[in-house]
Design the sequence.
């Protein structure tokens, strides 16, 4: 694995993930997730802690980039497949553990979040694969 490719994939992936996250959770599905919040009240911050969001998004993008770089085929279609699998598995883990221990989400919300994270991860994986296909070793 090449440090340059990992760095480029991570930055490009983080930008894609952040923009997709804003689109999915604050525009397209905000009302759905508001309706499927659990009984826990007051858990959302008035203003997010941006540095923490950036670190988490960079870590997610780096995970996707590592997964893609470990594959022998690096087409955009492969990027979508790997990204969707990694995103869905990562967030299935988080969503269902959070659902099991807290009242922050309904079961419907946990399932929907897992599916949407598969979509977000797939699109980001495709973007990462596309950009890395243009970058030399």
Sequence:
């Amino acid at each position: 694995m090449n440090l340059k490719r990992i760095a480029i994939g991570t930055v490009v992936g983080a930008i894609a993930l952040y923009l997709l996250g804003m689109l999915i959770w604050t525009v397209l599905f905000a009302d759905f997730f508001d309706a499927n919040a659990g009984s826990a009240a007051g858990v959302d911050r008035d203003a997010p802690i941006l540095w923490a969001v950036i670190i988490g998004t960079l870590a997610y993008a780096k995970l996707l980039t590592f997964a893609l770089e470990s594959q022998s085929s690096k087409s955009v279609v492969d990027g979508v497949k790997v990204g969707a699998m990694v995103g869905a598995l990562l967030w299935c883990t988080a969503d269902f553990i959070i659902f099991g221990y807290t009242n922050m989400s309904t079961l419907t919300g946990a399932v929907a979040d897992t599916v949407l994270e598969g979509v977000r991860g797939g699109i980001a994986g495709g973007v990462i694969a596309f950009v890395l296909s243009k970058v030399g070793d």
Summary: Residues 3-134 form one domain. The mean pLDDT is 91. The chain has one domain: 3-134. The chain is about 75% helix and 0% strand.
